[in-house]
Protein backbone atom coordinates (compact mmCIF):
# COMPACT_ATOMS: atom_id res chain seq x y z
CA UNK A 1 0.00 0.00 0.00
CA UNK A 2 1.33 3.42 -0.93
CA UNK A 3 0.82 6.42 1.29
CA UNK A 4 1.57 10.13 1.56
CA UNK A 5 2.17 10.11 5.30
CA UNK A 6 5.82 11.20 5.15
CA UNK A 7 4.99 14.14 2.86
CA UNK A 8 2.03 15.25 4.97
CA UNK A 9 4.10 15.02 8.15
CA UNK A 10 6.97 16.98 6.59
CA UNK A 11 4.61 19.72 5.38
CA UNK A 12 3.65 20.29 9.02
CA UNK A 13 7.26 20.02 10.17
CA UNK A 14 6.41 17.21 12.59
CA UNK A 15 8.96 14.60 13.58
CA UNK A 16 7.97 10.95 13.50
CA UNK A 17 7.88 11.04 17.30
CA UNK A 18 5.56 14.06 17.26
CA UNK A 19 3.17 12.38 14.82
CA UNK A 20 3.32 9.18 16.86
CA UNK A 21 2.33 11.09 19.98
CA UNK A 22 -0.62 12.68 18.21
CA UNK A 23 -1.78 9.24 17.04
CA UNK A 24 -0.96 7.42 20.29
CA UNK A 25 1.34 4.91 18.56
CA UNK A 26 5.10 4.34 18.68
CA UNK A 27 7.58 6.22 16.51
CA UNK A 28 8.56 2.82 15.08
CA UNK A 29 4.96 2.28 13.96
CA UNK A 30 4.97 5.62 12.13
CA UNK A 31 8.27 4.71 10.47
CA UNK A 32 6.97 1.28 9.41
CA UNK A 33 3.86 2.83 7.85
CA UNK A 34 5.82 5.58 6.08
CA UNK A 35 8.28 3.09 4.58
CA UNK A 36 5.55 0.65 3.53
CA UNK A 37 6.76 -2.12 5.83
CA UNK A 38 3.43 -2.15 7.66
CA UNK A 39 -0.11 -1.18 6.70
CA UNK A 40 -2.09 0.63 9.39
CA UNK A 41 -5.20 -0.94 10.88
CA UNK A 42 -8.45 0.48 9.59
CA UNK A 43 -8.94 2.35 12.86
CA UNK A 44 -5.47 3.90 12.69
CA UNK A 45 -5.94 4.84 9.03
CA UNK A 46 -9.11 6.74 9.99
CA UNK A 47 -7.32 8.46 12.92
CA UNK A 48 -4.57 9.55 10.52
CA UNK A 49 -7.15 10.86 8.04
CA UNK A 50 -8.94 12.83 10.78
CA UNK A 51 -5.66 14.28 12.05
CA UNK A 52 -4.78 15.56 8.57
CA UNK A 53 -8.43 16.46 7.81
CA UNK A 54 -8.37 14.43 4.61
CA UNK A 55 -10.25 11.43 3.24
CA UNK A 56 -8.43 8.13 3.79
CA UNK A 57 -8.20 7.66 0.00
CA UNK A 58 -6.10 10.84 -0.33
CA UNK A 59 -3.50 9.48 2.07
CA UNK A 60 -3.47 5.76 1.27
CA UNK A 61 -3.78 3.97 -2.07
CA UNK A 62 -3.40 0.42 -3.28
CA UNK A 63 -0.72 1.55 -5.73
CA UNK A 64 -2.81 0.76 -8.82
CA UNK A 65 -3.60 4.41 -9.63
UniProtKB/TrEMBL annotation:
Going by the UniProt record, its keywords in alphabetical order are:
DNA-binding
Span of the signal peptide = none
Q: Which domain of life is it from?
A: Bacteria
InterPro entries in the record, alphabetically? Cro/C1-type_HTH (IPR001387), Lambda_DNA-bd_dom_sf (IPR010982)
Q: Where is the HTH cro/C1-type domain?
A: 5-59
One Pfam family, please name it.
HTH_3
Q: Which regions form coiled coils?
A: none
Descriptive protein name: Helix-turn-helix transcriptional regulator
Amino acid sequence: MKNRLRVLRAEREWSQAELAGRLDVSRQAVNAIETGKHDPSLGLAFRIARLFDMPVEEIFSDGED
